[in-house]
Design goal:
Layout: E1 2-4, E2 11-12, E3 17-18, E4 23-25, E5 28-30, E6 35-36, E7 41-44, E8 49-51, E9 56-57, E10 62-65, E11 71-73, E12 78-79, E13 84-86, E14 89-90, E15 95-96, E16 101-102, E17 107-108, E18 113-114, E19 119-120, E20 125-126, E21 131-132, E22 136-139, E23 144-147, H1 151-161, H2 163-168, H3 176-191, E24 198-199
Amino acid sequence: MLINHLGKDPIIDTNAFIAPNATICGDVRIGKNTRIMYGAAVIAEGGTIEIGDNCVVLENAVLRSTVKHSLKIGNEVLIGPNAHVVGCTVEDSVFIATGASIFHGAKLCKSSVVKINGVVHIKTTLPENESVPIGWIAIGNPVKMFPAEKHDEIWSIQEPLNFPKYVYGVDQEIEAENTMYEVMKMMTNALKAHKDDTII
C-alpha cells in the first residue's frame, strides 16, 4: 500500500518490488532492485526515508523517520524480519538480523552487523566491520557492548543520553507519570496528521 502523507508520495524505482501488503508512507525513496517484503512498514513521519539499491527489507520489519530524525539506508543492506530501524544512518553492506532494534541518531558503518535481537542505542556509532552479538546492546560513541543483564552498566551510559529529551523533546528529569503524559501528548498530536493521508 502506497500512502501520501503530508503531501509527499513515495518515490520507488521501477525495478524495486513492494509486496502487496507492505506499507510505504510519505517522503520515502526506494532504489533499484530493492525488495520490501510482506508486512513490512516504511513510514516517514515528517522526516525522509532513503533506501538505496539492492536492499532487502524482510517480513514485518518497521522502518521509521521522524521530524527530527530522518532515516538513510545505503546499498546492499539486509534488514531482517521484525527488525525496528528508526531515524538513523545505515551505510552500505550492513546486515541487521531478525528482531534487531536500531534507534535515533545511531550510525551503522559499512559492513557492520547487528545479530539477532541486538540493540544499537541512540547516538551510537557502530564502526566498520564491527558486530553486535546476539541479544547484546551497543551504546555510545566510542561504542561499548554489553549483554542485557548488565543493566546498571548500560544505564550509566544511557542515562546521560536522555532518551526522552533526544527522541521526544521531554526531559527525563520530570516524574515518570508526567514524562509519559508529555510524551503521549506530543505523539498523539503529531500522529493526528495521518487523518489526512490518502492511498495512492
